Amino acid sequence: MSDKPYITVVVPVYNEEPNLHPLFERIYPVMQRMGRPFEIIFTDDGSRDRSIEILKELAHSCPEVRVIELNGNFGQHMAILAAFEISRGDIVITLDADLQNPPEEIPKLVTEIENGHDVVGSVRQKRQDTFFRKFASRIVNVTTNKMTGMRMSDYGCMLRAYHRNVVDNINRCQETTTFIPALAQTFASNPGEVPVAHAERAEGESKYSLYRLIRLNFDLMTGFSVVPLQLFALMGILTSLSSVLFALFLIVRRLLVGSEVEGVFTLFAILFFFIGIIIFGIGLVGEYVGRIYQEVRKRPRYVVRRVHGQENKKQN
């Protein structure tokens, strides 16, 4: 590996034992056919199965492969950031290990980067996911675009390409919680998108539960925009004006009609509605405060136990 790699492929791994050999058997020939120096960096994010053993075997047998072994489960995006730190390619590709995004699509993204784009996203065509997953992704895409002002068609697809300059800028950020596609978009001067194929997950289960999808949406909204706070402030102003008008209406009604007890339960319903809005607002403010708390603690975003690979042996 004397040549500096031109392309780096980054693959985060968490409990993907049955998919790793099929993935490597497809991704390695693709990279060889491109005829450019390359490296493949797998990041094991604290897997509980035999994923790390399989990855170490690949690193031992293939000089283009390096494996980052994290000291626990830090999340998909932290696993990618750990690989970004040691990546050397002029073009960096991120790819999930579940084979739902075919590795054969990588040359398409590389071509777009070489055509002048500095970030290239992908849009999954004919998605082979459940209705719930597709509906949840649609909500995330629409909400995030409205809140952040970004224009990305498919936030959930991690098959993406980044120019070296964008990766270097991402590496300079030390955010405790982030979302890499959106973060890269803030540094991109000429982003692009390409359609890619999508397949059913062959083995294992998706790591994104309903809770993690909700957390992802909160991270996107609170990490890249203050629009939620502004909307809540606007809602508070409108609510205050409405309450003043309603109070005036009640005063006029009492003068004209007199005292009565009708409509008490309607008032209770309105009261509970406003209480719900207040609780939601407190939770929203708490989300921002929590992010500030995480940042000021200055704890490591991830801990690398060891990096496996022949290149690292030579350096040691």
From TrEMBL:
Gene3D superfamilies with a match to the protein in the record: Spore Coat Polysaccharide Biosynthesis Protein SpsA, Chain A (3.90.550.10)
One Pfam family this sequence matches: Glycos_transf_2
Enzyme class: transferase
MF GO annotations: glycosyltransferase activity
Source domain of life: Bacteria
Domain Glycosyltransferase 2-like: 8-168
Keywords noted in UniProt: Cell membrane, Glycosyltransferase, Lipopolysaccharide biosynthesis, Membrane, Transferase, Transmembrane, Transmembrane helix
Chain segments annotated as transmembrane: 231-252, 264-289
EC number in record: 2.4.-.-
Protein name: Glycosyltransferase
Origin organism lineage: Bacteria, Pseudomonadati, Thermodesulfobacteriota, Desulfuromonadia, Geobacterales
